[in-house]
Design brief:
Blueprint lengths: L28 H9 L8 H12 L5 E12 L7 E2 L6 E3 L8 E2 L3 H4 L18 E4 L3 E3 L9 E6 L5 E6 L5 E3 L14 E6 L31 E15 L1
Antiparallel strand pairs: 1-3, 1-11, 2-9, 4-6, 5-6, 5-10, 7-8, 7-11, 8-9, 10-11
């Protein structure tokens, strides 16, 4: 991903279904990845063309495309095709990267602003998120609602993901790894003690970023860390 991002407004808070937006927004970095970089693959190879078709054109029966890409934060065995625990999965209805705050700007843009990011989301010092470039992100919405989602990792597999009311999940095809977008890394950090420094973004080593695609996110001194897979959501069941 590039190291600079477009900024755009927060999603409509009156939308009563977290997986839908009322109007298309400006393209974000991951939309550009899918729709821009993937277009350059046309004609490069049969595999590339097939992946492009699945990601940008193919919509299975029973699904409708979302006007913009959304993002699931998922936990589970990368080799699994189904499992439990989806009550601990979350959803970003807008790309959290462009709405984030660089680690270097944490004091100025968050601490000195009553724990509010410039675009309006609230930073929780006891439960905070980082992405692969060293941007502090807003938390996704928990839990991911029961339903059926059309998901992809922007590679070979685009398939249905079913979440039931008990938090069980199941893919129609492939594994969790197959629908994980490897360049997008995200982790959740929870400080072990009450401190304004240790276990905060001030403790994170900015030299640990950017994180290589598929690699685990860096540890932060004084924090428990949980790595989440990132899945693109490009459609929902009709």
């Amino acid at each position: 991903h590039p190291s600079s991002f477009l900024k755009f407004a927060a999603p409509d808070d009156n939308d009563d279904d977290g997986t839908w937006t009322t109007e298309p927004q400006d393209s974000t970095r991951r939309d550009l990845l899918i729709n821009g970089l993937a277009l350059g693959l046309i004609g490069a190879s049969g595999v590339a063309s097939y992946s492009l078709f699945n990601t940008n054109v193919y919509t299975p029966s029973g699904f409708v495309r979302l006007p913009r890409t959304q993002f699931i934060a998922a936990l589970g065995d990368p080799k699994a095709t189904s499992g439990s625990g989806a009550q601990d999965w979350g959803l970003w209805t807008a790309d959290p990267g462009p709405r984030g705050v660089w680690l270097r700007d944490y004091s100025r843009d968050i601490v000195d602003n009553a724990n509010k990011a410039p675009v309006g989301w609230t930073f929780d010092k006891n439960d905070w998120w980082l992405e692969e470039h060293g941007l502090i992100m807003e938390a996704p919405t928990f839990p991911l609602k029961a339903g059926k989602y059309l998901v992809t990792g922007g590679r070979m597999v685009t398939t249905g993901l079913t979440i039931d009311d008990a938090g069980n999940w199941k893919l129609d095809e492939g594994t969790l790894y197959d629908v994980t977008h490897l360049p997008c890394r995200s982790a959740r950090y929870k400080p072990l003690t009450e401190s304004s420094v240790v276990g905060s973004p001030l403790t994170a080593n900015q030299r640990d970023f950017p994180v290589a695609p598929g690699a685990i996110m860096p540890t932060v001194e004084g924090c428990d860390k949980l790595d989440y897979a990132v899945l693109f959501v490009i459609g929902k069941e009709v």
